[in-house]
Amino acid sequence: FGYLPYIDIWSELASALALSLYLVPVINITMVLSWVCPSGRISFYHAKDNNLLLTKVSESGAKEQTSLVDVCRAATPDTCHLNPLLFNGHLQTFWTATKSGDNVPVYYKRKIFQADSAMFTGQYAVDFAVEPYDMPPEGELTDQERKYTQPGGLPGRTSFFSQEELESLPSDDSKPMLVVLHGLSGGSYELYLRHVVAPLIEDGTWEVCVVNSRGCAQSKISTGVLYNARATWDIRQTVKWLRKTFPNRPLFAIGFSLGANILANYLGEEGDACQIKGAVLCASPWNLDVSHFTLNQTWIGREIYSKTLGTNMKALFERHVDEISKNPRVDVEAVRKITYLHEFDRAIQCPTWGYPTEGAYYRDASSSDVMLGIRVPFLCVQAEDDPIASREALPFQEMTQTPYGVMVTTSWGGHLGWYEVGGGRWFSKPITNWLNLMAKEIDIQIPGVVENPDKLPGQIAHHDDLNKDADLAPKPDFGPSRRKLNMNLPQ
Ligand SMILES: *[C@@H]1O[C@H](CO)[C@@H](O)[C@H](O)[C@H]1NC(C)=O
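ok -> structure tokens follow
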């Protein structure tokens, strides 16, 4: 759900590699095809009979109508040529653990936020991308006292804003700004994230900030509250703050992996009131019950991915054990014994949030229904051979019902892999193209118009077929973001 860490997975990697390379008795035909003709197939999923119409401004200033589907198609390269040495989803995914190609520098300055909600008390860290700068010596700017930072200190290329910088932060400029959510146990330093952020900030046209999940990216938590797959409270507070601090900036958002699931939940909960002008959901696990089930179905899924993800979460827990164990419902020893991700969720998420089983948590925190409530344009980018955010969990049908979203899938790419020859990452192209098109060529002041509002999901279309009786059947109300667990989310 994020990235596969460097935590000693090399021996497991080696055995899995050997397995996928040599031990599979029947050579997979697609594998051979990838060798001969190394190109992933690209597919688009969207509503066929209901467009979201957007207004495009041409260079001469003339306005013309276009559709979200056209914008998404224009943003997506015609081909997906990946590195033939990484010829399947597992290899593409494993490669992220090698941390190769880490030549994508993004510098950050950190601001700590105190949660404004009584339900989700505590502090969290937001990292703002800034121009390259020399790292300050240990002191206030590195949080030498470790008030907000774990003992190991800040991640690379990151330091705190000075008081003066914070005071001069507000601006009435109208630059587009991107809010980023990372994967399960990652942070602003993640390479996949920098592959999208770096090209956007290169020419100075974009502003970017990353909302780190509680306790991630070396931040310290100040209460027992961590986060979960529908932890929308911190992005909600951050967006409100951004709206106030940068009143003229059109806000965009992107989520990766678990962060994409959280973002889809947030956008759906916000519905018509959403302040985000456009969003990208990349490698989301969508239907968590299904993605977990498929993860646990195979040996590699269970023993490599689920174990790695479980180990990561256990390590995160251990870094914050003093705070978390103040919650009397958490059994510290039980958490220390877990191996797989679902065991972590059972030991932590269930008692913390009140879910009776991890299955109940997965079903409740999934974004596959909530996405039907999203009322701003969004682009989804998924690899169909993603071993973690599996194909089985993708909302193919839902994508055909909402005009607000388009899903682009590639047949090959792994989980946040998409490695090209030379270390480039394919997914950064459709994503940065789309964000640039939306921010610079679409007039986002003019709201998108749904061609057939009657066909929006959640609306039961009125049938006025003259050859039939009047449609008097009851019309129950489908609320895509209604949940089992009421977390009292602020509006
Ligand atoms: C995961 O798979 C194992 C092995 O097949 C099975 O024993 C276990 O019950 C599964 N767990 C979950 C939570 O699905």
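The CA atoms of residues 140 and 160 lie 8 Å apart.
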